[in-house]
Amino acid sequence: MKRVTLSIAMTVLLGLGAMSVAGAQGPGRGQGQGPGRGPDGGGGRGAMMMLRGLDLTESQQEQIRAIREAQPAPAAGTAEGGLHRQLQAELLADVPDMQKLADLQARIAEAQSARLAHLVTVQQQIAQVLTAEQRATLRERLAQTPDQTRQGRPAGRRPAPRN
């Protein structure tokens, strides 16, 4: 009885964790978009959106482009998506393999950690290209931005599936 209860609790917790992580991620790269391009490439979509309206000089734009191209984003979209699918499949198994669940969870966390480390590195380099005034403007924008994801949804929440 204890083992069944533990299995159910672990399944629910891992499932909720996987869904919240998946909900917090943006969509993967589209076809034909390589490193440093597209919504996820080289520094994150949000970082690039924040730079709009800063009146970057041509030199700054070139430096930022070079930083993004020199630091290609880790290929997370397809591989990580596959790991999430494997996790969901194992969670829905008649008898989930707890060791496999733990392994998948660790592999997903490792992929997410690599993406975050890349994002921090690129954003640090980009911040050094900006003037003190431009960084101050970005800090003001950041303070005024609500802690929500796109489409005004609270962080970690996904829209209801459409049938």
How does this model look, in words?
With 163 residues, this protein is an all-alpha fold. The protein has a domain at 37-145: Four Helix Bundle (Hemerythrin (Met), subunit A), CATH 1.20.120.1490. Helices cover 63% and strands 0% of the residues. It contains 6 helices and no strands.
User: Nearest-angstrom radius of gyration?
Assistant: 19 Å
Helix-residue proportion: 55-70%
| Alpha-beta classification | mainly alpha
Indicate the proportion of strand residues. Answer: under 5%
Poorly predicted ranges (pLDDT <50, ≥5 residues)?
19-42
**Mind telling me which CATH architecture of the domain at 37-145 this is?**
Up-down Bundle
| Multimer state | single chain
How far is the N terminus from the C terminus? 37 Å
Query: What is the name of the CATH class of the domain at 37-145?
Result: Mainly Alpha
Mean pLDDT: 73
Q: Please summarize the sheet with the most strands.
A: none
Taken from the alpha-carbon principal axes, the silhouette is elongated
Count all strands and give the number. Answer: 0
Short structural summary:
The chain has 163 residues and is mainly α.
